[in-house]
UniProtKB/TrEMBL annotation:
The organism's taxonomic lineage, starting at the top: Bacteria, Thermotogati, Deinococcota, Deinococci, Trueperales
Transmembrane stretches, start-end: none
Protein name in the entry: Aspartate carbamoyltransferase
Name of encoding gene: pyrB
Family designation: Belongs to the aspartate/ornithine carbamoyltransferase superfamily. ATCase family.
Entry-linked NCBIfam families: asp_carb_tr, PRK00856.1
Organism field: uncultured Truepera sp
EC number(s) stated in the UniProt entry for this protein: 2.1.3.2
């Protein structure tokens, strides 16, 4: 049975993920039609609760819901009663009165989606909580790899290298969790100050050497430096970071010949990744965005309809 929520991928089995990817294939076909809409979620209401700024994820979820004919109720923290001192629980009760069937939640504090799941009967999808998890990003990244890697024959024996600000990245944590569940190896790379030692575990290795991280990798993912979350002293200088940890054509020369270039966005060109590489033939960055809609359509469908 499909899990009730998508808070992270810990409770999702490999069979669940495989079923989700198969459903995403069907949803991708819908998005290729002249009329990109089906009545799959007609009569359902999806609430988007974003307590933190977002462009790609919020628009992707809203597009995914409307493409399946769901009603969408949007909530923005800045224009809500939260700014007047209302508690998170009371805010949820107010939105709950609109009888949403599923909430897509993003919050700067880790664990908030888990707490909301205890306060409502609606399904909860975690769209990013603090630095802890971003499960739909990991799902769309793995799905994109599956669809684009030449001669894909499963995740076993594959290597994903994630380079950059790992410390503040919920994307890195969720990808490490999901890809190792699917059988891949994950290498996390960055400055020692941005590389939490507790993330090292079976099938997840840490290194400060970008060429070592890229060696034989089937996909290399660059991460943005999250300056808005950083304290002073974590980096010697941006110029030094660019030289030591920027993903470039020279770095990719150490990877598998068919390696894919990935980035969860937003991109700072010629900082964490060279602009030419981001636009190269091996780049699937635009495919990640497009696949995000199909994968999120599948998530909404499986939680609302598939489980019945």
């Amino acid at each position: 049975m499909t899990p009730t929520h998508l808070l992270d991928t810990q409770d999702w089995s490999v069979a669940d993920v495989t079923a989700l990817f198969n459903t995403a294939d069907v949803m991708a076909q819908v998005m290729e039609r002249t009329i990109k809409k089906v009545p799959a979620l007609q009569g359902f209401t999806v609430g988007t609760l974003f307590f933190e700024p977002s462009t790609r994820t919020r628009l992707s979820f809203e597009r995914a819901a409307r493409a399946q004919s769901a009603d969408v109720v949007s909530f923005a923290a800045g224009s809500s009663s939260l700014s007047k001192g209302e508690s998170l629980k009371d805010t949820l009760r107010t939105v709950d009165a609109m009888q949403a069937d599923l909430y897509v939640v993003r919050h700067a504090v880790s664990g908030v989606p888990h707490q909301l799941a205890r306060w409502t009967d609606a399904r909860i999808v975690n769209a990013g909580d603090g630095r802890r998890a971003h499960p739909t990003q990991a799902l769309l990244d793995a799905y994109t790899f599956q669809k684009n890697f030449s001669g894909f024959d499963g995740f076993a024996g594959k290597k994903l290298a994630i380079v950059g600000d790992v410390l503040h990245s919920r994307v890195a944590r969720s990808n490490a969790e999901l890809w190792t569940k699917l059988g891949a190896q994950v290498t996390l790379c960055g400055p020692r100050t941005l590389l939490p030692p507790e993330l090292e575990q079976p099938n997840v290795t840490l290194t400060t050497n970008i060429r070592e991280a890229a060696e034989g990798a089937h996909a290399v993912m660059a991460l943005r430096l999250q300056g808005e979350r950083m304290q002073a002293g974590l980096l010697p200088s941006l110029a030094e970071y660019r030289v030591r940890f920027g993903v470039t054509e020279q770095v990719m020369a150490h990877a598998h010949p068919d390696a894919l270039v990935m980035h969860p966005g937003p991109i700072n060109r010629d900082v964490e990744i060279s602009g030419a590489l981001a636009d190269s033939e091996g780049s699937v960055i635009e495919a990640q965005v497009a696949n995000g809609v199909s994968v999120r359509m599948a998530v909404l469908y499986m939680l609302l309809v598939g489980r019945k």
